[in-house]
Amino acid sequence: MTRIVLHEVGPRDGLQMEKQAVPTDKKESWLRGLMDSGVDIIQVGSFVHPEKVPQMADTDELFRRLQAGKKSPAVLSGLVLNEKGVERGLACGVEMFCMGASASDTHSRKNAGVGTDEAVPRIVAAARAATAAGKRVQVSVQSAFGCGFEGPIPEPRVLGMVRAYLDAGLRNISLADTAGHAHPALVERLFGAILRMDPGVELACHFHNTYGLGMANMFAAMRAGVGSFETSIAGLGGCPFTKVAAGNVATEDFVQALQLQGLRPEVDLERLIALARDVVAHFGREMQGFVYKTGPIKAKERA
Amino acid sequence: MTRIVLHEVGPRDGLQMEKQAVPTDKKESWLRGLMDSGVDIIQVGSFVHPEKVPQMADTDELFRRLQAGKKSPAVLSGLVLNEKGVERGLACGVEMFCMGASASDTHSRKNAGVGTDEAVPRIVAAARAATAAGKRVQVSVQSAFGCGFEGPIPEPRVLGMVRAYLDAGLRNISLADTAGHAHPALVERLFGAILRMDPGVELACHFHNTYGLGMANMFAAMRAGVGSFETSIAGLGGCPFTKVAAGNVATEDFVQALQLQGLRPEVDLERLIALARDVVAHFGREMQGFVYKTGPIKAKERA
User: Fold this and answer.
1) Of A99, A218, B188, B256, which is least packed with CB atoms within 10 Å of its CB?
2) Which residues of A are known catalytic residues?
3) Where do the domains of chain B lie, and which CATH numbers do they carry?
4) ipTM of the complex
5) Looking at beta carbons, which residues of chain A come within 8 Å of B185?
6) First and final CA of chain B: distance in angstroms?
7) What is the mean pLDDT of each run of 10 residues along chain A (303 residues)?
């Protein structure tokens, strides 16, 4: 079995949704905690215009702080939208660049300002720039499993984008369930189709837990051969008091699930739970995670 | 593929956990709504001593009300602990008797007053009495996937109980994850082992969503060949403000998940969501379900 790679995205995907920006020192303390927990990759933030997403205005500063004397083996990733983002990221110490285009034309126009057909070459150009600089790169297809604006996304459309990435030599590919419409059968089908296109591709997944299927979709992805899983501490990003709760599966919930199956025993679950509780305390509201509420299943109780 | 059977257990497993008893009229209105929604089996209540579980004191009365002029094809099930419970259930119109013994000796002593070895023959006797009366019967192994008191439960112990049930001619068998410790690999292994013992057995599952694995475990059970799934409306039974939130997966979340995969399209999801919202409004606190908060994925948006 492939080693399961844990990619923490709460500091980016979670915090960008919060109305109030989290102080940089607080973010830094959470990020350092994550780096010490044994999680493999941590998405520190995104490189977007600070007027558009003020919550991410300190991304460059955070990378500089975390890179100063860095000893942790955790890979620090950043989300970029274009080549300009890659330049910013290279200047402050991004180790892995994540970027993507949406399979939904409507979502792409709202999010990236251009339709899918224009967004894909832009992403490919940014990915090539980051690759040329010797950095790790992950390219994604957003809204791969359906879209709140457009409804179902034809599978050939998703696979066509994957083909464009593969043809550009990009072999670390993520499918993102932006709207939360994915279900296990679709997850197995789409990832299976990609592996038939290129059995050597590195696959990643990003599921929003909007309708309660996040964990089931992750296990479906694991069966399909996906190796890298994006989660967020405490389930950050979802809010029980908004209409659509759209966080990822909580990192600590997924880590406990893996450990119940004998996987990734070295990851520090207790530390992740303490971190999740600190995040929850900071925001003062319950989040989607389960294990930070219940505490872990004790080692002696595990089947 | 086997038809997926939906067994609603909220009115029993959920309401028995609530501090305040729900008025009988309110329960009746929820039960009638469930009967009209297209769910296959509904667990109306349990036959326990009213001093022990006062929330279930009106179970006989509810069965009598629902049986008067009943037209719905929904099967009304009741939980019993022994032959006396079967007598009570036969007198008021129970159509399907559910009963079980715990694979954890400690849990069995706390719950049934006797250890597993004494509990199993008691359950077999009750099951035979109900079968002899021409009723449907489902026998379960509680704490089949681990126990908060005893920790891991040896798999041969669970399979030994299943063997005792099979030898008694009982072929509708449920495994219950009382503590919420189940994980997909264990679910597939245990149910797979039972199907190898008797490929014709009817299998059911009951997962508590304590650690966020309920839905993933249900999909694992489906793959393993389980046909009947116990869920609770709104995820009733869990409480976000208690230390261990131990509800089942929400019925409406599971129904939407099935419908995304083309299964059970005739079940009235909108009605289930309205019911879940009425349950939540009654208790005045958020529950574990997702879809009652977000609304359904619209038909035109489904992949």
Assistant:
1) B188
2) 239
3) 5-301 (3.20.20.70)
4) 0.94
5) 261
6) 20
7) 89 87 96 98 96 93 97 97 97 98 93 94 98 98 92 95 98 95 97 97 96 97 97 81 70 97 96 98 92 86 62
